[in-house]
Amino acid sequence: MRNVTARSLLLLVAASLLIAGCQAPTQEPEPTSEPVVQPAPEPTAPPTPPEPSVSITSGGDVRVDLTGTSGEELLNGTFYFDFDQAIVKRSGFQMLNKHASALNIDRSLKLRLEGHADERGTREYNIALGERRANAVRSYLVARGASRSQIEVISYGEEKPAVLGGGETSWSQNRRVELNYRR
Amino acid sequence: MLPAGKGRRAKARRFVMNAGVLKSGDLRQGLLNYVAALGLSIVLHFAVVAVLFYNWKHQPEIAAVDADPYYIGATTVTENPHRAREQLQLQTSEQRREQRLSQIRAERAAAAEAEALRREENERRMVAENEERRKQLAAIQSQLESSPQAEPVQRMDTPASTADIRQGLEGSDEQALMTELAERQAVTDDEKAKAYASQIKREVEQMWSRPPSARNGMEVLLQVHLVPTGEVVDVHLLSSSDNDAFDRSAIQAVRKADRFQVPADSQLFESTFRVFELLFRPEDLRL
Amino acid sequence: MKRFVLYLALLSAGQLVFAELRIEVTEGVDNAVRVAVVPFAIRGRSVPETNIRDVVDADLTLSGRFETLPIGQMLSLPSSGDDVFQRDWQLLKVEYLIMGNVSLAEDTLGDKAVVVTFELYNVFRGVVEATQTISGSREDVRDLAHHISDVVFEELTGIRGVFATQILYVTASGPVGDRRFRLNVADADGYRVQTLLESREPIMSGTWSPTGDEIAYVSFEDDGRPGIYVLDIGTRRSKRVAQFEGINGAPAFSPDGRQLAMVLSRGDNPDIYILNRETNRLRRVTRHYLTDTEPSWTPDGRYIVFTSDRGGKPQIYQVALDDLSLERLTFEGDYNARASMLPGGQSIVMVHRRNDVFHIALLDLIRGRLMVLTETELDESPSVAPNGSMLIYATQERAGGPGILAAVSIDGGVKFRLPSSEGDVREPAWSPVKRKTFVPR
Predict the structure, then answer these.
(1) In this structure, which topology does domain A2-42+77-182 adopt according to CATH?
(2) Of the candidates C318, C306, C183, which has an alpha carbon nearest to the alpha carbon of residue C251?
């Protein structure tokens, strides 16, 4: 029963993340999801040890079953940023916590953080901006227990947009950090 | 591509007509007594135009006659196909050249005719103005000459008429009048020269295309030599800007202007416009 | 007697006032100079594939400083000053003629196969302003033509021509997920495109060595990781000179070519480093926890100009290489980046954001005057021509459209776009030297 609610809550988080990604960057993440979701992962830890599992997809995403009981979940691997900002949005914390757990559970996992920027501004400055974003994600993950040696940061600046074309709808999807796993 | 020659010529002729209308309008104002002379001159001018047009129509024909034997000789001698082609090209381009030349010449001639007409009218007006001035001057002179004699008579006659009094007053102020007159003359010349000078400035500015290496504050001083028709006959570089392209652009501007409006008054021309200096110093560049 | 004095005064008044007339001309129209490039006469039996006249005509037109007369309007086709009917050209308002002849030796190979003689003729003065005879191989005809354009341009503008130079640039084509990146080099007029490098991973920041023999660039070809490479144009061989953790970017050769400035983050934050190419030693020249990037050398090689957001927003700074002292150069606007200094060292060109739009701007460092040069949007990567009078930059054909290259003169007077069919074109870099030079006989 609890698993079902947890899963539906996770779905909600994923949905809200998606929505957040598509929204105008100036908007703060909706506070409604926070209080409901936060207690969710913690109570799952104490009970007796079903084995958590981690696997990597061909696309470099990661599948995890953190409890060993709830079934595998494909973790969202893209995090979006505001214009000219390198601050991890609070709406992404929940999902990043799971990534941190995955890295913690499987120390053989290697994670490549790919930082990106939108096309505005100079290319080399955007390389720096992309790196700053990826570094921000790395700091978050390391703070949650991932090892720094597991994580590599590469910035592509504006060179590898997710979406071609101009305008805020494209730009907001290109200001991102992508998580890419390998062994 | 230029429009067809006929249209151009018609336009040019219309321009001549317009110029004539304008001028006669001007003249009617000031010179009613010159109407007869004017009429005669217009008739004369049309005659000149007619003669000139007649001549230009014939020019290309003469050229063609000149050219023909030469080309025949050239084509038979040639063996090199390239040269033959070149020659052919030359020949056709020569014909084309003649055609277009006659076109352009006709246009130019019409324009020049209009210009000549205008200039003559201008000169006539100036002559008339001078005449007027001379008459005024003469009147004043005679007045001045007569006044000293009249003075004692007036004093003897007790009730002096107002006209007499005025005459007397003017007479007594003879010296002041002289200087005033001289000054007025100087001012009109001054103003006239200034008007012509600013016209020259405008024309040169219209022609002056500065090279991209030009910078505000560069200076080049030229000496320009004109003939009384206003045509530029010589341009000397008096001081250089040390930038050859900039110097050349200034000289080129004067050369392109080709001829300037100059006063018909030969005295003013000789004193001011036969040789003058042009200082080029850009102030409006972005760099 | 009195009357005589009066007349004398009247007569001399005019002369007294205007003994020396000097007219000052302070404005001009700066119209393009009208020239005619006459078809070159062919001596010999065969005709070169490249039409010299057309190349010269296109060069001069592209520069924006000249208006050329179409062949159809020419009244005659002279090949030297002796054949010129001065008055004809004056009537057509042509100021200068470029004419000459080309001879192609049928059986001669090598550097003497093509011989070109040309003249620059001043129609209004009736004199030949410049004349040269040059020769080259059959492959050099285009270079010979660009040489003629250069001579004419310099003679008439007072500025070295750049028609014989080349442009290095990057293209990207294909859909997201299947992009192809190419590092290309082409003549300054867009002809003779050669692809130096092709990759599925991004290629960035191509830049020329001062001699034009080498090109430094950033490539992500090694498993997606960035590295700085130096390509020898002669051998077409690339050598990796830097691959540290994090950013390896923005290479810039020193004016003497012996050092390479670059940006490395080394797992931390980007700073400017200098690699001595002889000793292979790295020297760090900036140290700040925020971003320092886009180094470029001053012409004297004593300073490096770079972008830094240490003040909160990206601005241009300058570091002295002897004592590493810093100076901030830009204060106007909240986004100034990718600066490079003009040959004279008095001005920089850079990307400048104004009203949320990115333009290329010129900053006069002495007078402190900022001039926005471009009207297009999302302008970036300005690269100044070796003559310092033009710059090429990347922009977009329309908002959100593919990238194209455009050029603007340093005074903002001449602007033109170089449309391309190759997809997204970006990061142009103007070569510092000509592709080929010719010594006149």
Answers:
(1) 60s Ribosomal Protein L30; Chain: A; (3.30.1330)
(2) C306
